[in-house]
Design a protein that fits this description.
single chain; alpha/beta; Spore Coat Polysaccharide Biosynthesis Protein SpsA, Chain A; 9-stranded mixed sheet; about 25% strand
């Protein structure tokens, strides 16, 4: 791969985590003695990205203040001023405007085993999505359809009985996808569609014959959307990752 960068999407407020997120973005909720975002940054140390782009929105200054003392890392901040009325596709499109290399894309509310990134970077596919086939699937999960280790469809609206696992919000994308993804997102935004999850871009690129692989994982992870998720992250997943 060319120089590898990382994009972390952390613009959202996390309303379903209220009152914990009344005065801070959910990526700054603590798990153990560090915030979710600090755990993500520690995990990124293992793959040494040349630059980390943080897409911020709600309480953006708090995120900037947190990382200002992180030496040995190169950060760039991209602000989604419309965070309250948009979703991750819109946030990612802001980041794509400053991207010029292969990159790892991470949702800023995922707490996960650092080994997942090593597996992903080691996957020979230039475009790749991390998937857990053990997950119980319903309407809430980002689901995938697959042919072996080739991604066929991805999205929340897929029929879960036809899907093989859940995309966990950690992905690898090549420099060559940037222009095509921007075109997809620009078209959606031009039509007033700003509430999509970024996976719609991947799904549409697949429909245009762009190949995406799957990195299956059985390592520990959790996406933190609700109070119950947050308690599980602290009480269960944390103990698995830091026994």
């Amino acid at each position: 791969m060319a120089e590898l960068k990382a994009v972390v999407l952390c613009a959202g407020r996390g309303r379903r985590l209220a009152p914990l997120t009344e005065n801070r973005p959910k990526c700054l909720l603590p798990i153990g003695n560090k915030t979710i975002l600090e755990h993500i940054l520690d995990n990124l140390d293992g793959i040494d990205p040349g630059e980390i782009i943080l897409v911020t929105g709600f309480k953006s200054r708090m995120i900037e203040d947190l990382v200002s003392g992180k030496r040995g890392r190169r950060f760039r901040f991209v602000l989604n001023e419309n965070y309250s009325s948009t979703n991750t596709a819109y946030s990612l499109n802001r980041a794509l405007r400053v991207m010029d290399s292969d990159f790892i894309l991470i949702n800023g509310d995922v707490f996960f085993d650092k080994g997942i990134l090593a597996e992903l970077v080691g996957n020979p596919q230039k475009n790749c999505v991390v998937v857990d086939r053990r997950a119980a699937l319903n309407e809430e999960e980002v689901k995938v359809m697959a042919d072996g280790s080739r991604l066929v469809r991805i999205g929340k609206d897929l029929e879960h009985g036809e899907c093989l696992g859940e995309a966990i919000g950690i992905n690898k994308l090549s420099k060559e996808t940037i222009r095509s993804l921007r075109d997809v997102f620009d078209d959606l935004e031009a039509g007033g569609e700003c509430h999509h999850f970024f996976e719609i871009g991947i799904d549409r690129l697949i429909s245009r014959a762009l190949s995406f692989g799957i990195q299956w994982t059985e390592k520990a992870w959790i996406e933190i959307d609700t109070i119950e998720d947050y308690h599980s992250a602290n009480d269960d997943i944390y103990r698995k990752l830091f026994p």
